[in-house]
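Two folds, back to back.
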Amino acid sequence: MFIIPGHHHISMITKNASKNNRFYRNVLGLRRVKVTVNQDEPSMYHLFYGDKTGSPGTELSFFEIPAGGRTHRGTNAITKIGLLVPTEASLTYWKRRFEEHGVTHSDITTYANHPALHFEDAEGLRMVLLVANGAKVEHWETWEKSEVPEEHQIQGMGSVEITVRRLDKLARTLTDMFDYTEVNRTDDEAIFQSINGEVFGEIVVKYLDGPSERPGRGSIHHLAIRVKNDEELRFWDEQVRVRGFQSSGIVDRYYFKSLYFRESNGILFEIATDGPGFTIDGDINTLGEKLDLPPFLEDRRVEIEENLKPIEEYE
C-alpha cells in the first residue's frame, strides 16, 4: 500500500489574471512560478503560485475565465484552503498586513484545533492561515524576493475544507481507499490526515444539506493529492477503478502526470506526481516571468499569445 504524503496543489477560478497576480504575489508574497495555459482550453491562462520552485504541497493554481460569474455558495464543494504560517506571531503580522491592504479578514481565532486567521481574496475565495508550529512540506524553500519576511512567509497548504451532503461517503473514500486517518469527529464535521499528526495532508469534511454550490469566480475547482512517481500513479488509477469510480486515465501534464476522478458527492480529486516539476522548462532564477507552453502546444504559440490579454505587473 502506497502512502499519500499530502496535498499536491489546489486549483481555483479567477475572473481577472492581473488582479489575481497582484494579490497572490504582492499581498500574500508567494512566487509566481509558472505562467502557462489550460492544456485542455489554451485560450485561458493557468497561473501557479508557491514557494521558490513551486514545490508540491505549496502550489495554488488559477484558471482565468473572464466571463466567470459569481459563486453561489452551497454544499458538495471544496470550500476553504488552509495555508501554513510559522508561528502565532505570524498571525499578528498577517492581520496587520491584511488591514494595510484592505483584505477581508477575521480576528485571530482557531480552526480545526489550530490557531488561525480567516481571510478572503477580492473574489470571495475563502482561505485561512494556520499556525504550523514547525510543520511544513519538507522541501519548502524560502522565496528570497518575497515582500513578506522569511519568518512569516506562507509555507504551503494545510487543512483543506470540503463540504458535502454525505459525509460518510467521502469519509470511506479517504480512509478505505487512500488510508487517511480520521483524527476527530463530531455530528457535522470530521478531520482526516494522510500522515497522522501532519497538517499538510489534512482534510476537514463538513456536513451541509441543501443545494449544491454553483461555481464561479473565487470557487475551488479541484484538490490534487501527491504521489511520488508513475508507478504509484498507476497503482492509484487501478484503485479508483476497482472501487467503481470513473478515472480519467493517466494524463501527462508535462510538469507532472495525473489522473482525475469524482467521488460520490461529486468532489473532483486529482492525483498528481511530484515531478518533474516547474524547472523542466525554466531556469530557477526566472520562473514565472514568461509564458511557458508544454511541447505539444509550442507550435501554436503565436495563436495562443494573440488570444491572451497581457498580465499587468504591479510593483
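---
second:
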Amino acid sequence: MARIDFGGTKEDVVTRKEFSMAKARKVLKGETIAVIGYGVQGPAQGLNMRDNGFNVIVGQSKAFRKDWNRAKKDGWVPGETLFDIEEAVRRATIVQMLVSDAAQKAIWPVVKKNLNPGDAVYFSHGFSIVYGDQTKVIPPEDVDVLLVAPKGSGTSVRRNFLSGAGINSSYAVEQDATGRATERCLALGIAVGSGYLFPTTFQNEVFSDLTGERGVLMGALAGIMEAQYDVLRANGHSPSEAFNETVEELTQSLIRLVDENGMDWMYANCSATAQRGALDWKGKFKKATLPVFKELYKRVKTGLETKRVLSSCGRKNYQAQLAKELDAIGSSEMWRTGKAVRALRPKEKAKEITKETKGIAGRKSN
C-alpha cells in the first residue's frame, strides 16, 4: 500500500502498482462473477471486468425488459452469460449486488437461498448491510461480504475505463469467512477499473455517500442553482444570462480549475473582483447551510433517510412518479435554457481554428 498524506492525516491507499491487474486475475482465477442488475452500475462494472478478462455473467430480471435488452445489445448472451437473477446467483462464486437499494431488499431472499459456503457477496454501497434492520439483507456467516464503491456514476466508471484513466473507489470488508476476503475485494476493485482504492467501512461509506448525494453533489447543487437563477430572472436578467452566470461558467470553466489545482488556485486565477466577492461571501453561505448539513447527517445516521428511500422507491408507481419529478426539472425554463446554451457551445470547429491559426503564425514567422 502507498502511504499518502491527506491534509495532515496519513492514509493507506492501494494502487495498481501494489495490486496489479495480473495479480487481480490470479486472485480471481476460477471465480465466476455475477453482476446482478443491469441498470446503472451493472453495465459499467460488468463490461469493464469482461474487457479485463474476468469470467463474468449477468443476472437480470426479464420483467425489466429495457435492461434485459440493453444487456443483450452489449453482447451478453441469454443462456450463456445472461440469466435470470436466481440462475446467475446459482452459477456464481461472487455475487455483485448492483440493483437499486430498494430492489436489493426485494431480491435478497432469492439471492440468499442460492449462496454457497465460501461465496462472496459484493456491494457498491453500504446501504443494505448497514441498515439491515430495515432491508433484512443479512448475509450468512459462511460468505465473504465485500464493498467496492466507485466515486462516480456508472457512466463515469465506463467512460474513464475506456479512456484509460480509471476511477477512484473506496473498499471495505464487512465479513471475512474465507480468509481471502481482502484480496478478493481488492482484486475486484482493480477488475472494475479502479485506479486508486481507499479503505473505509460499510458504515462510513454509506453515511458519507448519502450525505454527499443529498448535499453538494446533487441536492444542494441543484437547489442553489435554482435559487440564484430565480433571483436573476426576477430582477430582469434574460434566461440565457441567468443560466450562463449560474451554470455554464461553473461547469465549463471554474469547476475545471478547481479540479486541476484546487479552490485556492481557482480563486487566485480569477479576476480580483470575483476573488474578493467569493472570499467575502463564502463564510455567509457556509453559515447558512451548515445547520442543513447537520440535520441531513443526523437523518442519515438515524436511518430516517433510508426509510424514506425504501418506502418511496419500493412503490409500484414509483417509476411513474419519478418520471413526473424529473420532467418538472427538465421542462423548467432554467433547464430548457440550458439545453439551448449547450447546443451553442463551440466544439470541433474551435480545434480547427486553432490549427489554422497556428499555421498562419508559422507562415508569418518564416
